Amino acid sequence: MVLFGKNDRVQELFSRSRVTLARFSGDNGGAQLIEKVDVTGNLLTQQEGILRFIERYCDLVKDRPKKAAADPSLPVRPRGRYHVYAVREAVANALVHRDFVLRDIATRIFIYDSSIELINARRTKGFVPPGSRAIRYGIAQRLNPQISSIFNRREYGAGVPRGGIPMILKQSERVSGRRAEIYTANDEFKLKIYGA
C-alpha cells in the first residue's frame, strides 16, 4: 500500500505513514518554528514532497563549496549547503526503514540553520549498540526489506543514490567538514547532517 497506493487512500487507511517536516530559525529544537507541514501519500509522493521542502530552505550541491569569509554584519545567515546525494539517500532511508509497529512515534525531518535532522521510529531493544554500530560500516539493518528492495529499484522511479549510511557520512563530511551524527535511543533513530 505505501509503495503503490493512491495518495488519498494511503492517508485514509494508514494515517501513521505521514512525515512531519519543520523549518526552525536557529540551531536546536528550542528555536522558533518558521514552517511545519505534513507530507502524506505513497512513498514516491512523500519523497518528492520532502525533497521540495528541503530545497526550499537548503542548497544541495555535489562539490565542496569554496570557503567564503563570514561577514558578521549580515543580518541573516546564508542558506546551509548539503551534499545532494547524502540528503537524497537519507530521505530514502527515512522513508523505507520506518518501524510502523511503533504507532506513537512519527517520522520527522527538522531543518535548522546549520543542520538537517531526520528522526524515525526504530525499536531500540536488541538493536543498540551492535546494530547501530554495524550500519555505520554499511551492514544493512532492514526492517522492511520488500519495501526497500522495490523503492530502490530504478523502475520505481525514486532515483535513490547508492551507498547507504557510509556514503552519507563520507559525503556530508566532505561538503561541511563535520561528520554526520547517528543516535539511537528511546525507540528512535536520529541522523543529523551538518551543512556548510
Protein described:
- The N and C termini lie far apart (38 Å).
- The chain is an alpha/beta fold.
- Helices cover 31% and strands 24% of the residues.
- The model has no long low-confidence stretch (mean pLDDT 82).
- The chain has a six-stranded mixed β-sheet with strand order 2-1-5-6-8-7.
- The protein has a single domain, classed as 2-Layer Sandwich (Heat Shock Protein 90), CATH 3.30.565.
Provide a brief overview of the structure:
By secondary structure, the chain is α/β, with parallel strands linked by helices.
Approximate strand percentage: 15-25%
What is the tally of beta strands?
8
- The helix fraction, in percent, is 25-40%
Give the number of helices.
Answer: 6
Q: Give the class-level CATH name.
A: Alpha Beta
Question: Any chance you could write out the topology, listing elements then pairs?
Answer:
Elements: H1 7-13, E1 19-25, E2 32-39, H2 43-57, E3 58-61, E4 80-83, H3 84-96, E5 107-111, E6 115-121, H4 130-135, H5 145-151, H6 164-176, E7 181-185, E8 188-194
Parallel strand pairs: 1-5, 3-4
Antiparallel strand pairs: 1-2, 5-6, 6-8, 7-8
Helix pairs in contact: 2-3, 3-6
